[in-house]
Amino acid sequence: MDNQCYGLKPNGTVYQEGNLVNVSIAPYVITTKSLRPYLNVSISNIKFTEIILKLSIDTTTDPCIKCMKFLVSNGTNLSLFWDCKWKYSKYPEHQMTLEYRAKSENYVDYRRFHFLTPRAKSDVEITDSKNLELLIYRENSREDPNCLTFYWARPPDKFDVLKYRVTLNEHGSSSRDQGFETPNTTCKFCGNLKFGTRYNISVEPWIMIDKSHDWGRLSYSDSFDIGQPPITKFIVPLVCCIVIITVLLLSLYIKTIKDKLKPTARNCVLVHVPTSQGHVVVVKKLVLFLKSLNMQVRFSKDEIVEGQSLGDWWTKLLGAADLIIFVSNPPPENEAAMLRVTIFPTVAAVIESRVKQIIDNNIPKRYVNIRMPYCTQKDFFGCVEKGRTYHIYQDRFELLHYLLKPPTIYVPACFFRLLFSSIFRSKEWDDLKSAIDSFFESSDTVVEIDRSPSSSAPPSPSVSLSESDEEDKLIQKETLERILHGDTDSEDDSSVDETTHHYNTAMIKKGLATIDERMSLHHKISHT
Length: 528
Hints:
Elements (H helix, E strand, L loop, with lengths): L21 E9 L5 E9 L5 E8 L7 E7 L8 E5 L10 E9 L4 E9 L19 E5 L6 E6 L10 E8 L9 E3 L3 E5 L7 E12 L2 E4 L3 E2 L3 E2 L4 H4 L1 H26 L7 E4 L5 H15 L5 E2 L11 H11 L2 E5 L7 H6 L3 H17 L5 E6 L16 E4 L4 H9 L11 H5 L6 H16 L27 H15 L13 H30 L1
Parallel strand pairs: 17-18, 17-19, 19-20, 20-21
Antiparallel strand pairs: 1-2, 2-5, 3-4, 3-6, 6-7, 8-9, 9-12, 10-11, 10-13, 13-14, 13-15, 13-16
Helix pairs in contact: 3-9, 4-6, 6-11, 10-11
């Protein structure tokens, strides 16, 4: 019998609910020796050719399952009765389920009912009207889980039941004032049930008691949960799937971007002016950091081969560059530093003139400005306004994105930190930060001068004072004057054009003026 229940639930077939057969359930008892309750399943209005019925008792210890299959010829007009028996002492007050599948040539009807096992005292022959209990069975709608239909068998005519009072009970509590009356043996609840709440219903018959009508005994259905609405039932798995898919896609996206990260320029030139020894150290560490990113960076005059002039070297280098990086340069700490680095005026003039030529001729280049934390926005060449400026600390993620961004993949700004955080944990970056910190630690203390006319206080130096004495300053002044009048040889003099010459002259005159001012200021402070 059990194997006949296979294929009970139709799969992918057309439903025509309630038209192929009428099925009703009623309790009855056998009174031999002891009262034993059983079920009678009535099958009427037959329009099917095959029906399979399954009765099961929900228990984990020893589930009672009974199956029955009926085959009917077309056009048969009869009713069927199926008496289901079991040992009541084995299954007292258990949840029971009756389901059937009726099939015709073109349609399939599948329904499922839930109820509690009937009790022996519900026998209509020996039970008086005061103790009569009804068997209430429940059917859930397949289309709407918030819609349920309840049925019960009509008592025999001798009880003269005229109507029923039905009450929907929440969490096992009941209130007759909230019920409604109906003459039918069925009722339906739709739309007014709360998801996640446990219910049952109670039914009272308006029954003949002692030659008059009165409300009889309460009969209860099985308890049931409405569960969760469809959108709520699937929202947790849906959210989990979305999160997992998002994480996987994000990981794949990040991996794809990292695989495509590479320098956007093949030839890169880094331009700086060696205004101090500490600044030169910082620039060298910056170059090492950029080279750790597989960038080909050229920046030093030491690369000039024998017989090649400074102007020719910069002209060739800047002309072939795809990307020109300008590093901000702090002003010279004192005139001694400017004299020690004799290339300072020449390098600045040559570079600026060559870059101006490139810009004026609309030669396609990319420019980027890297600002050091000890510099201001004014510490760049005047010709670098076209490039983007990035602070080496504050804009470090944006700077790397500009230098390494994949050419065909869009990278949102919110991903910069995720992509480049590991780069800023490298040894080269730590060395660069250490060089910047050392620059701050080695810088001389700057004492500001109050130049307001109303100030009666003696002026104080506006720049840091050199430790050289007055004699050293005179030597420095004499050296600059010799350079200005052409009394000294310059290894790069032949490569300097008219623009560079004017720039060199201006820088030397500025240096002379600075020395004169500081010597005068030194005299005033000494007298004070």
